[in-house]
Design a protein that fits this description.
Structural class: mainly alpha
Number of helices: 5
Distance between the termini: 54 Å
Shape: extended
Length: 90
């Protein structure tokens, strides 16, 4: 919905300034798109950038906050049930 030429040049700070990101959206404004824009706007209104503060990346799906393939795999199957198929045969 946002042209790549715009998305590749814009920084987060520029995007958040006066909700500039909403003006970058192009295409048909269907009710679903409008709902997504409003939801995203609500989420982004809570973001406050601080100059000179280093960004941190935290993987919420592991206790250490670090991404591992194992934690991603465990998250994929979180909440699923498992059974031993051989027990079902007999």
């Amino acid at each position: 919905m946002v042209p790549k030429r715009i998305a590749n040049k814009r920084t987060i700070a520029e995007t958040l300034d006066n909700f500039r990101w909403t003006r970058d959206i192009h295409g048909e404004a269907t009710p679903a798109v409008i709902g997504q824009v409003l939801q995203l706007s609500n989420i982004m209104s809570d973001i406050h950038l601080q100059l000179g503060v280093q960004d941190t990346h935290t993987w919420r799906l592991s206790p250490s906050g670090q991404y591992t393939a194992q934690s991603a795999y465990q998250a994929l199957f979180q909440g699923s049930t498992s059974f031993d198929s051989w027990e079902r045969i007999w």
